[in-house]
User: Fold Lipase, secreted from Aspergillus nanangensis.
Amino acid sequence: MVALLKVPMRLALLALLGLTVTARPATWSLATRGLVEDPTQDPFYQPPEGFENEAPGAILRTRNVISSFFGLIPNPVEAHQILYRTTAVDGSAISTVTTIFKPWVPKTDRFVSFHTAYDSASINCTPSYQYQLGTPQTSLIASVEMIIIEIYLAMGYIVASPDYEGPDAAFGPGHLEGMGVLDGMRAVSNYHKKLGLDSASPMIVGAGYSGGAIATGWAASLHPTYAPELNVKGWVAGGTPANLTGTLVFIDDTPFSGFIPAAIVGLSAPSAYGAELTPVIDSIITENGREKLDFAATQCAVADLVGFFDQSLFDTDIQTLGAGILQEPTIAKVLADNTMGVDPNDTPTVPMFMYHATQDEIIPYSDADVLVDTWCSRGASVKFTTLEAGGHATSEIIGLPDAISFVKTAFEGKTESGCSRDSKLTDSLNPLALGLNLEPLLVQLVHALTMLGDQDSEMAQNLSVLDKTVST
Ligand SMILES: *[C@@H]1O[C@H](CO)[C@@H](O)[C@H](O)[C@H]1NC(C)=O
Ligand SMILES: *[C@@H]1O[C@H](CO)[C@@H](O)[C@H](O)[C@H]1NC(C)=O
Assistant:
């Protein structure tokens, strides 16, 4: 199976290797602009009249698309998109899209739901748009995570990647994202015949890192109450933002503060907490703060980081409450609602693998650690791996071999029940242990990482050395 895939994948990857991720995205977008309509213009994203009466997960539209590497190189994999009905925070009906990638010789009783980290409140960063050939590549993280999707495809899994932030790019609200994931799984299950899946209840494992772990953690939390019929076999969440308040305080006034305005815009989206939150924000935001929010509403993650670099939400030049903003009752309630593990009903009922670096400089380790203890005290089965070196970005890669083997084990129903913890140093990375030739993919990831922070680029250099070692 893998051998069959190798030739076309290699061709695409060889082309890919000619590029480095550090090439200027602006050049790519100039070359490709205008080939694909963005979601505000593309009628596919508009739900048909009366869709509100459909059940969550109902299929509203379908199409085939040409997917790509970095928007530029056609990906020779079959790709479908489904517009499906899902649910807003207030319970009303909304719609969103999932993109399904199908390998040439797929396993027909299962699929992976991969929740890419788009980390942005702009609809133009939405994965279903970014994956298409000809889209300007503004969402660098989704482009890089496409390589992780390729690994799952090479293993024979159909992979679905839902736009879990919904129709108005609501970055941050866990309930919305969790329901978006679960309804995406329902939509894929409803589409089983077209995909060649054997039944309408295929086995599923859900996975995501960082922003994608907000979606994953909440989908795992809501699965028992919102979509108990889904045949989910396991969840993988790395670098998990378990506590939004904790994340906010941790990244405020750092190079990563740019995620804060994006989350404020996302939490205030109409499908999220707009009705209650927008009047509060309007009453406290300064002119300067408004500019920052307007910017975050139109940009993807990398631009967001540049736009609010080293700035503080608690600055009265941004909003008039200063440090008191976290005690403002509506804001405090929204943040508390988006902390995983607070409601005992939101406890995952199928095995979960979580991993997190102690030195993670974006998502605090301690919040994930607390969540694992909380879930375990309520009978969840969580395997938690602590990575003792590396930053946020490299940990996604370091944790990948274990994440992938957990996915495999979960599908086989062979994960251990109960909770366990272990600690790993970076030298445990051994891509060859997976029995696949992942080297070209890892090289690409390493290139991408060298653009990132100090912890990560040092780690990336170390990985390069390792990569040379394993490939000789
Ligand atoms: C979430 O983080 C905030 C800020 O660190 C903390 O005060 C709060 O207790 C945390 N909530 C939970 C449930 O751990
Ligand atoms: C990279 O390798 C060097 C030398 O082995 C080591 O001292 C350093 O801690 C490593 N860096 C990281 C981030 O693991």
Summary: The pocket of 2-acetamido-2-deoxy-beta-D-glucopyranose (ligand 2) is lined by residues 389-390, 426, 455, 458-459, 462 (CB under 6 Å). Residues 1-34, 430-437, 465-472 have pLDDT under 50 and may be disordered. The radius of gyration is 21 Å. The CA atoms of residues 21 and 448 lie 5 Å apart.
